[in-house]
Amino acid sequence: MILLLNPNTSVETTSAMVEIAREAAPCLALAGRTAPFGPAMITTPEDLLASAGAVMALAAARPTVGAVRGYIIAAFGDPGLEMLRAKIRRPVVGIGEASFQEAASYGGFGIATTTTALEAAILARVAASGLPGFTGCRFTTGTAQALTARPEALVEALGLAVEACISDGARAVIIGGGPLARAARVLAPRFAVPIVEPVPAAARLMARRLAGDHPGTASGVGPPLDRDAPQP
């Protein structure tokens, strides 16, 4: 079983992301888990920090779905990714890192998203990935909360941000955010350049890692645990 950990408190978002991940990687047995505390949507650096604690709490909870083979952290900022990898030896994939890798395979890539307050955090994650060809972030106007409450407006606003990324020279555009997963799906057929959806990208990356294509700690598998220590 792969646990998809939603670092925000929206059960609806968790369900949507699990459904999309299953479509992308039917070979994976997936179950979703929703943060027991923290923000309903991650829109600020403070939210991102709080959600890292929620990820660790979710991973530490006793599973009720059988043996856990890996974890997907389903927030674009990949909160708690390094902390969780340091504690377990199962594969851990973040939807942010997975989308960077997939988008970079097309050449230059940009990010279209809704959270201007997280620009510095997003740029830091891209820089840490070491991947070349990043053309920058483009943001929607208006608040993320207001847009996500109006799905059609969200799609149109993100579409404008995608167009701006293409103008920047992006050959692929990431729709940056777990709660934006459904909007990303709607936008994908509208553009000639690939629209990279982080949740499917993470599901595909997890499937490859479980198949043994990316062994070692560089693939997101943490070091062996102390045999006497409790293992999640």
TrEMBL record:
Signal peptide: none annotated. It comes from the Bacteria. GO terms for molecular function: amino-acid racemase activity. InterPro entries: Asp/Glu/hydantoin_racemase, Hydantoin_racemase-like, Iso_Racemase_Enz_sf. Residues 213-232 are annotated as: Disordered. Belongs to the HyuE racemase family. This is Hydantoin racemase. It comes from Haematobacter missouriensis.
